[in-house]
Amino acid sequence: VQLQACGGGLAQAGGSLRLFCAASGRTFSDYTMAWFRQAPGKEREFVAAIYRSGGSTPYANSVKGRFTISRDYVKNMVYLQMNSLKPEDTAIYYCNAALGTRTYWGQGTQVTVSS
């Protein structure tokens, strides 16, 4: 699986951004898809995930109620809708695909939120 993330950019606090992750491969629907982020000087952290059935979408407490993850099985895309952005959301956001012991990462997209 190859992942290509985009959609990051600069937003003001309270604003919105939508991240996109395009996945290649015929078995996209088998993978749990997720978004992680890494702020400067911090470790990479989990943001949100969506299981292959699409029925379960866990979120980090810090983004719950503000971010929404979704996926399109036809387009092999994963989205992260980010609303009510805060300066602490500033980070590089990474798309992740996981199936059993196999895990794949996209190249990351920068999100910067100004106060």
Protein model, in words:
By secondary structure, the protein is an all-beta fold. Helix content is 0%, strand content 51%. It has no helices and ten strands. The chain has strands at residues 3-6, 9-12, 17-23, 32-38, 45-50, 67-72, 77-82, 91-99, 102-105, 109-114. Strands 2, 4, 5, 8, 9 and 10 form a six-stranded mixed sheet that branches. The protein has a four-stranded antiparallel sheet with strand order 1-3-7-6, with no helix packed on it. The model has no long low-confidence stretch (mean pLDDT 95).
Largest sheet: 6 strands, mixed
| Multimeric state | single chain
The total strand number stands at: 10
N-to-C terminal Cα separation, in Å? Answer: 37 Å
C-alpha-based Rg, rounded: 13 Å
Number of helices: 0
Write down the overall mean pLDDT. 95
Concise account of the structure shown:
The protein has 115 residues and is mostly beta strands. It is 0% helix and 51% strand.
Key traits:
globular; 51% strand; 115 residues; six-stranded mixed beta sheet; four-stranded antiparallel beta sheet; mainly beta
